Every structure is written in structure tokens, then in C-alpha cells.
Amino acid sequence: MPRAIDFHVHLPTTEFMQVTLGPYAQAAERYFRTEVKLKDIEQIAADYAELDMIGVLLAWDAETATGL
């Protein structure tokens, strides 16, 4: 049994932050007053394993809402 479950995970990967979010990435960092440190999927999995946590991944699709 995991110690905790994170029910709201957006992956801080290059694919998500730079490809999917694109021009919204910098605005999101300003809004949330934080800098996202990019990681590969193996590092994210290792981080969660080290914390004895499970993460529920969420998708984000700007194209659906913006048409871009």
C-alpha cells in the first residue's frame, strides 16, 4: 500500500512542458510563481517510488479549447 496518492500530476517532461504547453509554459510558471525543472519519465517514476507514492496523470490539451 502506498503512503500517499497524488491525484493531480502533470508531468514536468520536455514533451509536456515544451511541446504540449508550448507558449503557455512561461505564463504558467509566472502565474504559479515557480520554475518547472524538466525531468525524464524514469526520474519522475524514481521520485515517486522514493516517496512511496502513486501519481494519477492528467492530460492537458490546449488545442481542444483554443484550436491552436
Tags for this entry?
about 70 residues, two-stranded parallel ribbon, elongated, alpha+beta, 2 strands, about 45% helix
Account of the 3D structure:
The structure is a single chain. Helices cover 46% and strands 16% of the residues. It has 68 residues and is α+β, with helices and mostly antiparallel strands. The chain has one domain. A two-stranded parallel ribbon has the order 1-2. The radius of gyration is 13 Å and the shape is elongated. The termini are far apart. The model has no long low-confidence stretch (mean pLDDT 89).
Question: What order do the helices and strands come in, and which of them pair?
Answer:
Elements: E1 4-9, H1 14-20, H2 24-32, H3 41-50, E2 53-57, H4 62-66
Parallel strand pairs: 1-2
User: In what range is the share of β-strand residues?
Assistant: 15-25%
DSSP strand tally: 2
The whole-angstrom Rg is 13 Å
Distance between the termini: 41 Å
Provide a concise account of the structure shown.
By secondary structure, the chain is an alpha+beta fold. The chain has four helices and two strands; from the N terminus they run βαααβα.
